[in-house]
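Encode chain A's predicted structure.
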Amino acid sequence: MTNKAAARLKSDGWTILETTGFLHLIGPLWERKFDGNHEFALATEDKHHNRRGMVQGGVMMTFADRTCGMAARYVSGREYLATVQLDTHFVEAGKIGDILISRPRVVRTTRSLIFVSTEVSVDDRCVVMANGVFKILKGPE
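Encoded structure for chain A:
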């Protein structure tokens, strides 16, 4: 990530979200609360490119999955959830250097499932639409 992207995110009130494992390889992921809602950001860099030099679709899917899962986690107050389903629609290509923004919205919760929707955008341009279903788990499995 460039210093310029990090400086822009910091100046706009974003902080780095601690990650481990696979997500640590994708990030850093950024988070902020805006108008009472959680928002997430990923500053794309060369490690995110596909063979065409654009942002790899799997990176955008992972970002959508993680951010929807975090929204489900926040609303449920539960630490352990699993993605049951993630429907992803690629609307437009992301360019390396873009800052991806996800603003997930919890659509419905039940005792065992949470339904979440997000649009991943660059500036005001939607690049991905995703809908996820997350199962509440009892603990590490």
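Residues 45 and 68 are 22 Å apart (CA to CA).
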